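Can anyone check this?
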Amino acid sequence: MEKREQLFLGFLALMIVLLIAMGLMQFLGADLSARQTEGRRKIGAVYMTLNNPFYEVVDEEIRTAVENRGDVLISRDPALSVERQNEEIEELIADGVKLIFINPVDWRRCGPALAKAQRAGVPVIAIDTNVEADEAVVSTVVSDNFLAGQQCARHLAASRQGGKVALLTHAQARSAQDRIQGFLDTISHHPQFEVVDQEECQGQLEIAMPAMERMIERHPEINVVMALNDPAAMGAMAALRQAGRLDGVAVYGVDGVTETRDLIAQGHMQATAGQDPRGIGRRAVEEAYKVLQGQQPEPLVKLPTTLITRENVKHSSGEGWE
């Protein structure tokens, strides 16, 4: 009996040793990096800010598409600091990323960081807004921002006899400039509309609200607001509501977020030119993998915007945001 017990214990000890050895081999062969990313290509994305639902959706779409291809996305948020964005690009280059998506804080001042990426052989794709030096990026994927401004102006001219217009702008973003320019070029053919004031707001609700308050104080006759994006439009509406002026002013924006769709349906906002952030994210990834596979990407991709008004908002699916 004692001998049989010894044999059993010896067999058990051998099995334990074998199991430990197998586990050790699996351990040594496993990917021990954070989020199991060792051996996968690293791709970087640097936005102007993630304090905006538009960029959150773009990032989510890019991340899903990149990870579905077996790679990893490293996203950075410089919180509207061009200096920090340039530093983050340099950090991503040092970290060995194979490609960078950039949504520039300042379309002109990002040049030095893009030059460093070029020298390091790291291709860059601009998303949502152009950079000044087109040759510094291999592709640019944006909405047709000029069209977005045109759509808002055409709707205004068709729905009102005239008005005093205030603009909420963002000079550092080429996309914002194009939207405002599309609006101005179109409305210039209708002299019954006059732009009486404008303020910078960086596309941020919390900056747009006091900016709108100042413009109302200077020009109480304002009855039209053209905002570069929906967060700025919501800031304007908050100021107008506080002043008891919300229902008397036609507010336009660009994006098509759920909140502004609701405000349009309720009659508090005139219209917004809807973008497709998921479409931008998907197309940017398509162009990125052309580059990574040694193919030629499209140098410029413009996705159309769709004007969302009280007449069509109930039939608008919110595609691209959901």
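Reply from J.R.: I decoded it. Residues 21-35 have pLDDT under 50 and may be disordered.
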